[in-house]
Design a protein that fits this description.
Blueprint: H1 9-29, H2 33-62, H3 68-90, H4 98-117, H5 123-128, H6 134-153
Bound molecules: fe (ii) ion (FE2) (2 copies).
């Protein structure tokens, strides 16, 4: 992946957002179980990698520099999405609620992306006003992303782990 493709860390994350939106659109149009399964797997892989690079690298770089509520809510929104990601990955298109789960996941992600990209008070707009070097951050995230992509292709990625939300066993 050529580093020149993205001007900075925010451009990299926005490109990820566009990619997953496109995959959700393709899923909506898909009719066969095999293409639904393939697209759902691609969506879940993208989201696992994206939430990991944000939570490991991007969000911590801005702790104390932007509104805490913005960051805290982002972690909780990620956790909500992770529940559906793990469930969709474990299921198959023939299962009850499968399409509904993918649809609700797309709506959760749409809301979350809006919170990140919203002009002026959104997370990224707040991040741009800080002194954090977004180019250094881009390189750290690209390196981690390449590592995770390689893992996804070889052993596969582990289950998405919640960060803020506690999973209560019934
Ligand atoms: Fe994001
Ligand atoms: Fe996010």
């Amino acid at each position: 992946m050529p580093r020149e493709t993205f001007t900075d860390a925010i451009a990299l994350l926005k490109a990820d957002h566009r990619k997953v939106e496109d995959l959700f659109e393709q899923f909506e149009k898909a009719t066969s179980s095999s293409s639904k399964q393939k697209l759902a797997h691609a969506i879940c892989t993208e989201l696992k990698i994206h939430t990991l690079i944000e939570e490991e690298i991007f969000y911590p770089a801005f702790r104390g520099k932007i509104e805490s509520d913005t960051l805290d809510e982002a972690y909780v929104e990620h956790d909500g999405a992770k529940v559906l990601v793990n469930d969709i990955e474990a299921g198959s298109p023939q299962d009850d609620f499968y399409d509904a789960k993918v649809k609700v996941l797309s709506e959760e992600i749409k809301h979350h992306v809006h919170e990140e990209e919203m002009p002026s008070e959104g997370m990224f707009a707040q991040c741009r006003k800080t002194d954090v070097d977004l180019v250094v951050l881009r390189d750290q995230m690209l390196a981690r992303k390449e590592e995770l992509l390689a893992q996804a292709k070889s052993a596969g990625l582990p289950l998405a782990q919640p960060t803020a939300v506690h999973l209560i066993a019934a």
